[in-house]
Amino acid sequence: MNDSTDQAPALECRDIVRTFGKFKAVDHVSFSVPEGSFFSILGPSGCGKTTILRMAAGFLEPDSGDIYIKGKSMLGVGPNKRPVNMVFQHLALFPMMNVADNIGYGLRRRGVAKAEIAVRVKAVLERIGLADSGAKRISQLSGGQKQRIAIARCLVLEPDVLLLDEPLGALDLKLREHMKVELKKLQNDFGTTFVYITHDQSEALVMSDQVAVMNKGVFEQVGSAQELYYHPDTAFVAGFVGDSNRWRGRIDAADASSVKLTTADGLSFAATPPKAGGLGAGGEVDIFVRPESVQIARAEADVQAMDNRLQGRVESVLFNGANSRVLVREPRSGGEIDVALPQTGAFHELRKGEDIWLGWGKDQAKCFAAGEAG
Amino acid sequence: MKKRLGFYLLLAPLLLWLFGLIIVPHIDMFFLSLQEKLGPGDYQTSLANYAAFFNEPLYWNTFARTAIMSILATMITLLIAFPVSYYIAKLAQGRIRAVLFTLCLLPFWVSELVRTFGWMILLRETGVLSHLLQWTGLAGQPVEMLYNDATIMVGLVYTSMLFMVVPLVTTLDSLDNAHVEAGYDLGGNGWSVLREIVIPHAMPGIVSGSIVVFMLCLGNYLTPILLGGKSSLWFTEQIYDQFITRFNWEQGSAFGFLLLILSSAIVWTGLRLTGQNLSSTMGDGGER
Amino acid sequence: MTTATKTIRLALVAGVALAFGAGAVQAETLRLLTWGGYAPDAVVKMFKAETGIDVEVTKSNNEEMIAKLRATGGGGFDLAQPSQDRVTGAQSEHNIYKPIDLSKIDSAKFITSMLEATKGNTTLDGKVYGVPHIWGTSGLVLDRSKAGSVKDYTDLCGDAVKGKVSYRLKRPTLIGFAFAMGMDPFAAYGDKAKYQEVMNKVEAKLIDCKANVKAYWTGGDALLNLLRSGEVVAAMAWDTGGWKLNKDNANITFVAPKSGALGWIDTFALPRKTKAEDAAYKWINFVMQPKIAAMITASAGNFTASKGADAFAEDALKKRFQDSFPQEAIDNIKWYPPVPAGLEDIEGKVLDRVKAAK
């Protein structure tokens, strides 16, 4: 993805492997992060994302493979010698130093002159909007301020890559929403390459230029937020990124552009096979349908043109403004279907117990070989 | 009302203990120390016993020697205990950790007298170590390792180790590994991380451990007496002698008070020099 | 109040009194403040069988006995065993003892000369405060094969035994050296200035001698180990220590120095606040029986003031005694006279300076 420029990527991992005892934490992972971009690794806890980050920072060495930063191999280079810095999950601000000393720590280690350190610390504090907080103690800061100080402490060193280990995890929801925007802005301002790991898809989707979805030590898919959301490559990605309704069934007939299947309850669906293909009749598959892809109708005629149609009864209406949902009970399987209400407000008078029709096109139903989904 | 009663009930044992076992005897000792003995059964109130300490070089030399050796023993204990504690708190896992901690505790399962005799068996001229040295050919003749100041030091450090390790392990345990990693990540090397992050964090433990060890060394009696050489005077020995062999309780009390005051002054100076204060050391242990 | 309730109350009170009284009788104990070996378990058991009295033994030494009794004004113990020279000084200064009622002592069981001597030494204002129990000496313990040259305390400073000598930094050492240097410290007891002069000379000698000393011993076991291992070949110590080592190594034994061994007698004295005076007299008369006294000799290593106990003493011990003490050495024993109050200060400062000297 970086082939078009002659510049070496900020961070590149080639076929790295890392095991802990018998557990394969990272299993032949390769990726590269272009200069100045915001790259996220998204995955459930235990997927190996932290291991990758710690290998990039230098706290762990890969068993095999190589890590390059700006084209230089980092094998055998200690964490204090790498041009990368890390923002820790709990920030790891030094409580015995004040804010200015925290930010100046790295510069002192580099032997920068005292006066110069003061100037640079002041400058970075101004840039993050905490100009007069230098003399404060860490315990006097709010959660969001600590966050910014932790990032400033790294950015003042002008690292080639900034690694962030779920730094928003400890914040409350509202502040987290705010910090997402703020982080992205900081990244833009400083133009530093960010590698961000998280298990929270919305953090990854909102901020990143590129997101890698990781599961069980491997990258399932790397792409932009839109690609992951609309064109998942694997069942795991389809299940993990965004919400989906899903069904499992057996293939009745399959060709390159469509698959017909029947669930154990006898429901028949048409779906789109993955790009990689490889699905044949008789195989067990999962299909994923996003709530917003499902159309609601009061009469069957309104969804007559859809590839897939179901009748159900409204179980409950979950009103949440633009994100309102309705849960529909499908009588044959007894399963619940999650449907987004149109933002036009067309169905806002839906009541519990009403019978309605649901329909969606086969393009909206992604079909993957049955397996473990996120 | 009921709440108040409970509070006082809880406070009562502490007050009883403080008052009955510490304050009252000290007041008694203080008045005793102000009695100057003129003859059998004939006393007058004066500061003569305190003056004796400052006028007799032997006494304050003994105190200075005791204090300096105790400070030295405290420093050596700290130097040895710090890596041990760091290993126990940060590097050792699960069972090894428990085993190591128990090892530190082990010497305290026997009395101090037995421990000291153990050292004597090891270090004496016809002892284990001397034989070992001769057997390996490192020494041509029996080596006497007892009866000198270095032996006292060994004994004091050995006896004090646990009292340094426990507070150090406790504070180091609370050091977030991420702080150490952050220290490296931001360009620090082992030494600067130790100096700027680990030691400042462990400071409350270092200070409280050092105070305890210093006081224990200063107040130790058996180790210096049994392991020390012909010229090794120890201040507690002076106090014991005044009380027991010279029947001079008045002088002994004055010495006891001087020990209390001077050692407190040394601890206070030490706290000042390291920029610590007692409440942060003994209290909340600093902010996390 | 009705008669019935009155009776019940009386009965209750009587019952309680009885319970306490019975408890007191059952728990009659003699709290004995003594030296190690002076009250062996076997003797304590025999005493209990004969009289029903328990003996609670606390082991101590002269200085600690005085300190303990001083702290309580003569309470906490029912019978103490200080040396005869340390009774009157402590009594005149601290008033911790009460006079002995000699009519309750079976004087026929004592060696008469010793009883009279002790009575004389422990008399204050016409009242007797002590009767003798055990006596012994301190002198030299030598490995005769290696320290044949040592005949007196001052010989400990000779080159022949350089670095292989040990003694205590305590008053017997000062006294012993004074005699060996041809002075009579006991004669100077009454005159502080003269005593100071004697002690100054001893101080100079001991400082001079310091290079010869391996260690100043502080406990009996430590000294025995030094001698047993051969790290020390000549020491100033008690006779029993020498005899104990003699059992294992025939070369080592106690030798009475030329200037005379220093003789001590440990007494029985009643603490002023004794709570079991009768039991104390019973114990004194009990242990002075020849057979019992011989048992105590076997345990403590020293002979007692009991008349006729020699007949029951172990032959080996008698043999060792005779080896160490030819008749002229017995005649030459310097018995400690009572220590006047105040000498401890002079001695203490001398000892401090010796220890501090380089």
Write structural notes for this entry.
The complex is a heterotrimer of chains A (374), B (288) and C (358). Chain A is of the alpha+beta class and 374 residues long. Chain A has 2 domains: 11-236, P-loop containing nucleotide triphosphate hydrolases (Rossmann fold), CATH 3.40.50; 237-369, OB fold (Dihydrolipoamide Acetyltransferase, E2P) (Beta Barrel). Chain A is 22% helix and 32% strand. Chain A contains 8 helices and 20 strands. Chain A has a 6-stranded mixed sheet with strand order 6-7-8-3-9-10, with helices on both faces. Chain A has a 5-stranded antiparallel sheet with strand order 13-12-11-14-20. A 5-stranded antiparallel sheet of chain A has the order 15-19-16-17-18, with no helix packed on it. The two termini of chain A are 26 Å apart. Chain B is mostly helical and 288 residues long. Chain B has a single domain, classed as MetI-like fold, CATH 1.10.3720.10. Helices cover 76% and strands 3% of the residues of chain B. Chain B has helices at residues 2-33, 48-55, 57-91, 94-105, 112-123, 128-135, 149-173, 177-185, 190-219, 222-227, 235-245, 249-273, 278-282, and strands at residues 35-39, 42-45. A two-stranded antiparallel sheet of chain B has the order 1-2. The longest helix of chain B has 35 residues, at 57-91. Residues 283-288 of chain B have low confidence and may be disordered. Chain C is of the alpha/beta class and 358 residues long. Helices cover 46% and strands 16% of the residues of chain C. Chain C has helices at residues 3-26, 41-51, 62-72, 87-94, 112-121, 171-180, 192-209, 220-229, 239-248, 277-287, 290-300, 315-324, 327-331, 343-356; strands at residues 29-34, 54-59, 79-80, 97-98, 123-124, 127-128, 131-143, 165-166, 234-238, 252-255, 262-268, 270-271, 303-304, 334-335. Classes of the chains: A alpha+beta (374), B mainly alpha (288), C alpha/beta (358). Chains in contact: A-B, B-C. The interface between B and C is medium-sized, with 29 and 35 residues.
